[in-house]
């Protein structure tokens, strides 16, 4: 690595001595600073190949837009209206694709094919906040690093804008370096981001391992009668996350709340009886997400059996994650499998085929089978037809599906079927369906349990799928 900016910007000798001291720290293992979790040796050994894959993709993407450099601002800290309170910082996902840095505002990456990638790294003097540490870890030796003391100092280190494509949030850059987010460049990068490198897979495995620790603690808290807030806190303690480190807000539901798909509260009130818990909660490692849902029942034999029915359907669907499978077909297959479960339990009568084509299964399973997963919990390009753009539309009648691509090796996705008892979706069936097609008394019995969702994170490989979530549970 080189600290060229120290010379170009004429920073003083004291600053250069500090930089030399930083070099001495580079041999320490890299920490995911937000969470103080060591990143495994496997990930660090795999990093050079990850970097060269990103460099190859970027070279092609730049060729398509006729530019020499890709600039990626990490983002800026945003403030609340009339206040000096910042919103939680969310790093530009294009930035954290290159480096395990998730908390660093006002930094830049300059990617130029054929050259060592260049990180412009803000090391501010700030006595109000703890500034980021000097760059250190397995990735640093692969970068040319320039330290700056104010965001404006980046300008002198950036190439002329005419030669650059800039990817980032509209207000996340210097005023004269506004992102152009060129569609042809993004189409290419986003399409290929679905295919994870070995480095990325190792971090996604680590994220699942971390989330599973939380899920086990959450189940224990539920079994001992904890409130939603108790369960949430048990989850945080076991993962070592705080709320802001999570890749998405935990969904922690007891009883009827399990019927609200994105239930957003964590009630501190212990319910009189804890009949059921649905917890949809993830974890992050180096900016990569896990996204896992489990459902439990404390008492009812029928609801417990229904959980097992959804679980069996879910595992059969995971087993179908193979190269060449169209995810739209898998989603429709999921409807058939869940309709079969509803028929097996006597909740619906008739054939699964009729339940799906007449839209009855959608009243119990109103969301999509899953989505791509990676740097973002709902990762980009779920509908991408090619690396030159185009969109694969959802099948008609399935408005919430988030992934329509054909699967191939390296893609990571969730598989998350569910069965819910949501009154606003059931109400139309009350007038539409004759009594002999649906068992309303069973549904009334099940409504106090809310619903069921089982969600795993799955890698499509050249052969058997890799289930990151079940592997992590098995190892725990
Ligand atoms: Mn999900």
Strand segment count: 15
Structural Rg? 25 Å
Q: What is the architecture of the largest domain at the second tier of CATH?
A: Alpha-Beta Complex
Q: Name the assembly state.
A: single chain
Walkthrough of the structure:
This protein is an alpha+beta fold. The chain has two domains: 4-193, 3-Layer(aba) Sandwich (Creatine Amidinohydrolase, Chain A, domain 1), CATH 3.40.350.10; 198-475, Creatinase/methionine aminopeptidase superfamily (Creatine Amidinohydrolase). The protein contains 14 helices and 15 strands. The protein has helices at 4-8, 13-24, 41-65, 93-96, 183-193, 198-223, 228-239, 301-319, 327-344, 352-357, 361-364, 423-432, 440-446, 468-475, and strands spanning 31-32, 37-38, 69-73, 108-111, 118-122, 144-148, 164-166, 251-254, 276-285, 288-297, 412-415, 418-420, 451-453, 456-459, 466-467. Strands 6-5-4-3-7 form a five-stranded mixed beta sheet. A three-stranded antiparallel beta sheet has the order 8-9-10. Strands 11-14-15 form a three-stranded antiparallel beta sheet. A hairpin with a 6-residue loop joins strand 4 (108-111) and strand 5 (118-122). The relative contact order is 0.11. Manganese (II) ion (MN) binds at residues 291, 371, 414, 416, 455.
